[in-house]
């Protein structure tokens, strides 16, 4: 039996999988402040990473579990962005909980809330030797199995943003038996194809070939996030020039007519900029995406020819078998997203026409709007809720 399954079964027997921590973390604090009962579940992966999953429990007869999976530079906190002038309904986690769903907020390996490992320290370079492939291969299956075993359900609904979409498509390509465990997929800015990537992304991906060699020599395995620099950015954005900050965001994620300026006001800016993004990211994650851009293929990590032969028994990395993905999919994407071009999403939509239950193409919507737009409840959350409700009792 898979090691992660053994762990979950043991924890269910001993009731040890709910961790009532002595010191509340950012997510538990925010959930409690809003009046939501919450739990932190510890999940062990087959490669021994320990992941913390935050839960807003609801155990009614028709309360189905919904899993929320974040993007690469983020954490599960992106689904509970709140503050002065930011409506609670803009948070997808709160909307789902208010409608009676059992909400599970994922924190992937390496994020602030899931830094533990049975034998490795986050200070060890070996800890950071992963890309989105390992999140797809180990994190998601362990979390999904834990949720289904704990709640005694046979399926759940999946919502992912950016990397959260990449990993579920990779997981289902690798482990097609998980199709039966996912009733619906809601993919916000699905990051699979990069044929039409921006000039900026293509330039960065080309530069990354030099960085891969350089970081190997220097033994650098993660991209740190400088906390003090975050504070400076938060203060500058809120007190000097909101316009300049908006232009900075637009340069990286695309222009938007839905930018929520409330996010940049104090104390919101300090709270959100300091706590929602991940404080460190594995370079393997960055390099893997860069490889997708350069190759124009949705493929496994390229370890270079000699190591590829050892791992894959071929000189180049294999592509993920998207033909294995066979579950209902809801696509949501923006026309001004600078990270995931809408044309690449439409290519993906065409490939999955038999499995597509809805397509929402949102004009003047960028990459971050799916969690931070001032109209995110109307344009995104409500649409996801309606579709999940359609399949609630089936």
UniProtKB/TrEMBL annotation:
GO BP field: lipid catabolic process
Superkingdom of the source species: Eukaryota
Residues forming the catalytic site: 162, 337, 367
Keyword annotations from UniProtKB, A to Z: Glycoprotein, Hydrolase, Lipid degradation, Lipid metabolism, Signal
Signal sequence, renumbered to the chain: 1-23
Domain AB hydrolase-1: 64-190
Family matches, as Pfam families: Abhydrolase_1
Database matches in Gene3D superfamilies: alpha/beta hydrolase
GO molecular function, one term: hydrolase activity, acting on ester bonds
Family the entry assigns: Belongs to the AB hydrolase superfamily. Lipase family.
Name used for this protein in its record: Lipase
Organism: Pseudolycoriella hygida
């Amino acid at each position: 039996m898979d090691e992660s399954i053994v762990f979950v079964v043991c924890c269910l027997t001993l009731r040890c999988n709910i961790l009532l921590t002595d010191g509340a973390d950012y997510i538990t604090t925010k959930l409690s402040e809003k009046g939501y009962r919450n739990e932190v579940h510890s999940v062990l992966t087959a490669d021994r990473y320990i992941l913390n999953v935050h839960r807003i429990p609801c155990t009614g007869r028709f309360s189905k579990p919904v899993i929320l999976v974040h993007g690469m530079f983020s954490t599960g906190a992106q689904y509970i962005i709140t503050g002065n002038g930011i409506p609670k309904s803009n948070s997808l986690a709160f909307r789902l909980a208010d409608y009676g769903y059992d909400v599970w907020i994922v924190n992937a390996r390496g994020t602030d809330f899931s830094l533990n490992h049975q034998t490795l320290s986050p200070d060890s370079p070996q800890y950071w030797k992963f890309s989105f492939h390992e999140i797809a291969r180990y994190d998601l299956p362990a979390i999904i199995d834990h949720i289904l075993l704990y709640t005694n359900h046979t399926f759940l609904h999946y919502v992912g943003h950016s990397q959260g979409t990449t990993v579920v498509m990779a997981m289902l390509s690798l482990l097609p038996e998980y199709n039966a465990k996912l009733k619906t997929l809601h993919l916000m800015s699905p990051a699979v194809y990069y044929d039409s990537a921006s000039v900026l992304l293509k330039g960065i991906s080309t530069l990354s070939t030099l960085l891969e060699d350089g970081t190997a020599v220097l033994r650098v395995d993660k991209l740190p996030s400088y906390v003090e620099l975050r504070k400076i950015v938060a203060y500058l954005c809120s007190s000097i020039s909101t316009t300049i900050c908006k232009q900075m965001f637009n340069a990286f994620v695309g222009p938007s007519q839905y930018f929520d300026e409330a996010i940049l006001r104090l104390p919101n800016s300090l709270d959100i900029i300091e706590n929602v993004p991940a404080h460190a990211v594995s370079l393997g994650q960055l390099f893997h995406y860069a490889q997708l851009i350069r190759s124009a293929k949705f493929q496994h990590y390229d370890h270079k020819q000699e190591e590829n032969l050892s791992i894959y028994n071929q000189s180049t990395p294999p592509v993920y078998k998207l033909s294995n993905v066979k579950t209902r999919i809801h696509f949501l994407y923006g026309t001004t997203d600078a990270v995931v071009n809408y044309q690449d999403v439409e290519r993906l939509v065409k490939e999955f026409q038999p499995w597509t239950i809805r397509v929402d193409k949102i004009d003047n919507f960028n990459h971050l709007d799916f969690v931070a737009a001032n109209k995110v409840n109307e344009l995104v959350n409500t649409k996801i809720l309606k579709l999940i409700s359609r399949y609630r009792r089936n």
